[in-house]
Amino acid sequence: MRNRLTAFILAGMILGVATGFAANLWVGGDKALAKDVAGYFHLLADIFLHLIKMIIAPLVFSTLVAGIAHMGDSAALGRIGGRALAWFIIASLISLTLGLIFVNFFAPGEGLNLVRSGAESGVNTEALNFRDFVLHVFPTSMVGAMAENSILQIVVFSLFIGVALTAIGEKGKPIITVIEAMVELMLQVTSYVMRVAPLAVFGALASAITTEGLGVLKTFGELVGEFYLSLLALWLLLCCAGAIFLGRRMIKLLKYVREPLLLAFSTASSEAAYPKMLEQLDRFGVPRRIYSFVLPLGYSFNLDGSMMYSTFATIFIAQAYGIDLPIATQITILLVLMVTSKGIAAVPRASLVVVAATLGQFDLPVEGIAFILAVDHFMDMGRTATNVLGNAIATSVITKWEGMLEVEEPDYVPHPKAPAHTPAHGRAGLELAPDMVEEDHRR
Fold this sequence. Notes:
There is one protein chain. Helix 3 runs antiparallel to helix 10, helix 14 runs antiparallel to helix 18 and helix 15 packs antiparallel against helix 18. The radius of gyration is 23 Å and the shape is globular. It contains 19 helices and two strands. A hairpin with a 5-residue loop joins strand 1 and strand 2. Helix content is 74%, strand content 1%.
């Protein structure tokens, strides 16, 4: 099923573009009708995203609490968290700096000669301030945090529960058993939900192409193309950094995470890739107690693609309006983005909000946001996939630092001692020979 899922997702992407193009030729002249048709296409993606949101909160909570409880050492938890945050900060600085370098090198906004009008951007930036972000981190209700799928709040609550279960020792064993059963239950539900992914990919792309047409890519082709070249450079840098620590296993990691990357790219949703990423990291050899803790943190603090987009879009808009920014000002913008971007997990349409807030802070034309909205979806696809890749590498590297990286899960090979009708099951549900199962249970 795993190999077929990749093929189905790729087929969904191709069919989605082709169907969207045909629909655009048919109804593209009537914007209202095109919007209605696109809405029905997007219904498939909306259903899938609703199902993903349905499982995200219990999945994060159960895997994180179980992982912390099995660490059995609060010092190890603090050490892993410290290493994770150190990696996130360095990766964010590199991503922001790379975006700044490439937008100055390509200068995609030069020659557009847009005129500042003072119009509203249409993006609400009131939610983006440090005080509200800090307050948002701490939940007032676990039920409310799970209902809103606020990952950062779920992480905080889960940390308290996991550490407390470790502290009470034997008395907490029955609860840990229930939570471990919940983990297995949610992973099984996840496997059901992932079967809808190819249809979601088809619907998301067909919807976007129906309303915008392929022409939108041609009109803004230079901006989108140069942004993707910048992302490619970031991918190469991230992969090289991963290879320094993981060696040849970096290639294996890319093989394992290709499905989450395709999901993130085609749906422009990191949430859509989260459950599959858990499974693939497990197969790669990352213990559950590591990825269940580091990955949710990464989804809040380690958004490499969004970091690059923030500097790229901010300087692009300044260039489009003919505003020359000294290098000192650009570095200041970078440092401001380094701080403000850490709150984007709590804000809808996060990257655009961060850019709009930064433009306003430096008296740059905030209405420039409207200029890139036409292709923001296509740029969002790339930056979302980059966020997912960055977190996969970060989680694997931190596991390697801890000396806990295990051998990747082997593909199923029939074992002469294994009865054909009673296969043993590995950690991700693959059929393994009996002599492989004992090693698997050490997780």
